[in-house]
Write a structure and sequence with these properties.
alpha+beta, Penicillin-binding protein 2a (Domain 2), 2 domains, five-stranded mixed beta sheet, five-stranded antiparallel beta sheet, 21 strands, Peptidoglycan D,D-transpeptidase FtsI, transmembrane, penicillin binding, cell membrane
Length: 581
Amino acid sequence: MKKFGFKPNGSLYPWRFRLVIALLGLCCVAVAWRIAELHVLDEGFLKSQGDKRSVRHVPIPAHRGQITDRNGEPLAVSTPVLTIWANPSQLIDQQAHWPDLARVLGTDLSTFSERLKANADKEFIYLRRRMTPLDGEAVMALKVHGVYSIEEYRRFYPAGEVAAHLVGFTNVDEKGQEGLELAYDQWLQGVPGKRQVLQDRRGRLIKDVQVISNARPGNDLKLSIDLRLQYLAHRELREGMKKFEAKAGSIVMLDVRTGEVLAMVNHPSYNPNNRSNLQPGMMRNRAIIDVFEPGSTMKPISMTAALATGRWKPTDQVNVYPGTMRIGRYTIRDVSRAPGGVLDLSGILLKSSNVGMSKVALDIGGQAVHDAMQSVGLGEYTGLGFPGERVGKLPSYREWRSAETAALSYGYGLSVTAVQLAQAYSILANDGRKVPMSLLRVDERPAGQQVLPEAAAKTVQGMLQNVIEAESGTYRARVPGYHVSGKSGTARKASTSSKGYQEDSYRSLFAGFGPSSDPRIAIAVVIDEPSEGGYYGGLVAAPVFSGLMSNALRLMNVAPDNLGDMQQVELPTPPATGERG
C-alpha cells in the first residue's frame, strides 16, 4: 500500500485535496468580491452603461404663445402635428412596405425609394414634417420597422393675408422669421420638457419611465390692432388699388389718444399659411419700411410751424400770383391760381399752393419748419420695434438756403414712412400732444408730451376741416354724418437710374383724422403708381380714406358730429382745381 501512496489511515494524497479545496475557496472569494465590486463599488458605471443602451430622453414639445388682436381674436396659433422620421439602415430592408408608405406619405414610389437608398448609411431622415394628426396616425398604423413619429406644433394664421405683414410668420421649426413673430420670438417661444423612456436596441418603446421636466408654453401676445378694422382697411385699399390699377399701397390707422396702431395693411399681400409661391417683395411691410417724399401732406405741419412763431395769423394773406415763383434756377409752380392771386393761410392749404407755402416758410426760416417736422416724429424711429423699420430722412443744414426751405415746406427733399405720416397727423389731432406709438394693446392712456403749441394745432385742425368741406375742397374725403379733417398729396417718384424725378410715376397720398370735433382716429393712405383714371391724391387716396373712416367710426360707436349731413350721400363735383395736393 505504501507503494501506491496510501497512508495507513486510508487518505490519498491529502496535500492535493487541500490544494483543490483552497483553490475552490479562492474562486468563491473572487466571485464574491467581483459581485460586491459590481453591485457596490462600480454600480454607477454599470448603470450608466446600461442607461446608454436603453434609456432615452424624449423631448416634450412646448407650443408657441398665441398672438391675438386687442379683442382676443386669434391671429397666430400653434396646432399639434406629427412629424414622421425614419432610420434608413432599418427601413432599407423593408422594401415590401415601401409602396404603402409612399402612398400614405403623399409621394411617388420612385422618389421615395431613391431618397431612401441615397441615405441608406444614415440613421435619421425626415419622411414628412408636420402632418395632421389623422394623416400621421395613418402612417404609424402601418407599423413599419424603422418608421417613427415626433409630436410637434405647426403655426396657423386665421386672418391669412389680412394681417400677414404685421404678424409675420415662423419657419418649420417654429422660429420667428418675419414681422412680430420675429420681433417677439423670445417672448413667444415655449420651453420644451423632457420625458425619460426605455427602448430596446431597435428603438422600440419598452416603458415610459417618468417626466423629467414639464413643457412650458410660450407667452401670449395681445396686439393693439382691431381685426375688424384690419379687414375694413384691407378691403378699402384693395378696392382703391383695383379701381386705379395701382402697383402697391399701404394704410395705417392710429388711435389718436393712446398711440395704438388700430390697423396696418399693405398690398400686394400673401397668405402665410401657404408660402409655396411667395416672392420676397410680397413680404415687405411697406407701411413701415418703404420711404417716400410726402408732398403736400407736409403743408399742415409747415403751417403749424408758422403759427407757432407768432409771426403769422390765420387771416394773414399771401399773394401767389401768377402761380409761379423763381428761386435761383428753381421754379416753384402751383396747379391752380387763386382768384385775384391772394390767399389767406387757410386758402393756401385749401388750394394746396406751393408758392404760398414757400413764401410763408421763407419768412419764418427753414429751421422752424425743420423743428416742427422733427417734433412730430419725422426722421426718427417710431419706437414700434418692428424689424427692418426705416426712419426716412429729414435734412438739416447749418445755413438754410431759399430753395431748400421752400422745397421742405411743401414736402420735397425729405422722406417718411406711412407710419410716420399717420403719427404726424395724430399729433395734430391730439392738440399737439405726442403719445408713444404701440403695436401692443395699451390698457392705460399715456400722458404724452406737448410737442406743438396747442393753439396752433387746433387752428390747423380747423383749416384741415375746411380743406375737405369747402365748396372747392377735397370732397371725396367727406364722411356723411361726421366732420373730418385732412390733406391730400401727390408726389412724383424719384428716379432710381438718374437724378431727378420720373415723368409719369406718382404716389397718391391722403392723411387725416376724425371726427374733427373730438378726434379719435388718424389715417394715412399711400397708393403707389396708379396707372388708370388719374393720380392726384384727392382723386385716388381720398375715397379710400373716406370709406375706411366712415366704417371705422361707426364700428367704434363714435357719435356723429354732423347730423345735418347724414342724408347727403351724393356730393356735388367741385372744380378740378381741388383735386390735386
